[in-house]
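Hi there,

I know you've been waiting on this one. I reran it after we fixed the sequence typo, so this is the corrected version. Both the input and the resulting structure follow.
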Amino acid sequence: MAQTTLTNKAPVYPQGDEESIQAFQKFLLAWYEKNERDLPWRKTRNPYKILVAETMLQQTQIARVIPKYERFLSVFPLLQDLAEAETTLLLKEWQGLGYNRRCLGLRVIAQQIIRDFGGIFPRKYDRLLELKGIGPYTASALCSFAYNQDVACLDTNVRRVLIHTFTLRENCSQGELQRLADLLVPIGRSRVWNNALMDYGSLQLTAKFTGIQSLGKQSKFEFSKRWYRSRIVREVLKVGEISLDELSVVVERSKEYVRSLVSELVLEGFLRLEGELVGIKEDRFVGGKED
């Protein structure tokens, strides 16, 4: 019989055998029934809405995402609406979430689905990976949360749960974690299971509780290069068009530094630079083609 030890109501299964896995499944699903978080994206099976949520949740706290998620979908309710969105409106609706390139990436995915897949989301993991910007985690999340396919979603919270629960080395490989995560998924219940693991890691097996830290630590944002880029985009959105001289005064950095950041933002599709004037770069996508 699997030996279970309790640490403040957090069981540990050092064996990792089939019986231990079944015991953990039983424990976690019972825990989830009492502790499930009420999150708006869990009330839909629409892959577009789930993609929006998963993109917003990357490196952004849930409390900040909830109102922005609901607002974003009220402005862009359909995949086609996002594909045809003007950059100015898209960036304005994304303000407050950070990492602006995520919203442009979302639009690229929407355009690719319309252009290459007839407006229908792929249902298979490998086909989802063909979409620009979608990696293994997001593809797994779509397969699980939209289609309830038997796939594991391995994020920071789930990683911490697996390491703590099955007494793994903190530096164990992603492949080792993925193999264990795949074994744990109850057949036909991946949607519930993956949500349960995430909630358990977020609410119970926190970094503070377990002492297990995330692999990547976010650097300080204020006065970083990313912070100045964000200020530049925000200022251009506010006034519509602005000179490099004026922009350097507003962000309180040299004109050459501002020019270098603007040049990056031009290459990434955020801005246009015409002489000394900076504005938002607009691209129209109509009927599956970009003008």
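Quick highlight: The two ends are 65 Å apart (CA to CA).

Best,
R. S.
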